[in-house]
Amino acid sequence: MTTLIKNGTVVSATGRHEADVLIDGEKIAAILQPGTSAADSAESGAEKVIDATGKYIVPGGIDCHTHMELPFGGTFASDTFEIGTRAAAWGGTTTIIDFAVQKHEENVRECLDSWFAKAEGECAIDYAFHMILGGVDDAALKEMDALVDEGITSFKLFMAYPGVFYSDDGQILKVMQKASENGAMICMHAENGIAIDVIAEQAAARGQTDPVYHGITRPPRLEGEATNRAIQLALVAGAPVYFVHLSASEALERVAEARNEGHNVYAETCPQYLYLNLEDHLGAPGFAGAGYVCSPPLRTKEHTHHKDLWRGLRTNDLAIVSTDHCPFCMKEQKELGLEDFRAIPNGIGGVEHRMDLIYQGVVMGELSLERWVETCSTTPARMFGLYPQKGVIAAGSDADIVLYDPNAKTHISVDTHHMSMDYSAYEGFDIDGHVDTVISRGKVLIEDGAYHGAKGDGRYLRRGLSSYLI
Fold first, then answer.
1. Hey, what domains does the chain have and what are their CATH numbers?
2. What is the dihedral of CA 394, 442, 82, 10, to 10 degrees?
3. pTM, two decimal places
């Protein structure tokens, strides 16, 4: 099928211009100058014409940090691959990179196969996987080479959650040494989990068990310390490191220092750290704060993270905005921690709202329009081996396209979102801008306020190595 998108403004990471976009099948066939004979010919021959007057034509969003169906704390993330990817499509995201999980003493290959089984035939949009290594041993290290050859080119390690995902410095160094050989990217959850567990145990012993203590017992210094330690290990190993869900100014300072010295150090942040805080959200009255329990935690108003994180996005010390989408319902899931904050499943759902929330950076003057596209789509594609198949409006690239209406409004609420959650962390947010039309590999998924896709529309993506490695 051929589709022509006309009268819109194509926005890339490097600029914007008026253009018509011709789609042939699953690919972008041409970028055409409006009013030319080529554009007129394309319109007359197109099977479908979409008028994008007044709208931005941007590459489909890539959320490179999601956790569909993740087992955590005695329950599972409430979004299945079917539900979560459909919600992502509603929000203008056309690709996710989820995390397959290996825990201590489990076989890496068997764990990966179980994640393939969960996702196959279920996803509404295209998907790929990182591999969590929660049990680093000789077998896991050997398996890294095989996975890179199969298109899983990034591995996640945890400096938190002792007894579940935690890796010590020696294990981290071994994985980084392997990555320096095979070109993989190491994704790092940087918090000093050993120290955090001590502080949390002491708080619980004092009877401080409300949700707000989840944040109080995970001080930003321990994110900064772990970030610095991981950077030093990466430099010793000669490997790249990418910090997931960076929340603390102390951590950002360490990343900026390493980048200023020219090292392969990268980081992402998430919308929750840009908009939410410990006092108003995690510290909400009663048990309501449980809905905002995530790790790293929301930071205090006194912490300068909001200002610093927006600046980090402008300076590229923060390369990407992902969501760390890991939704749980309040009822029967977050409620597991009614008596003890340590038992609250960690996670916030946001895959549906990322493009809108970060567009507010454009509205507020924090980001340029081009930087919005870069952080939400182009850089994720380059960082994780999907460019130029994804992340750009260009001839030959996949026809993953979002028409974004800057003059419309979006109201976020549990009553209207499409995620499998009984609350919204962004309840009542009114957004300037709206996802109007979403196209995934040439197929219209969202149009005129209706969903036209189906489970199984998404395809697994074999990724190459990162484009950012020096």
1. 2-58+391-409+433-451 (2.30.40.10), 60-383 (3.20.20.140)
2. 40
3. 0.97
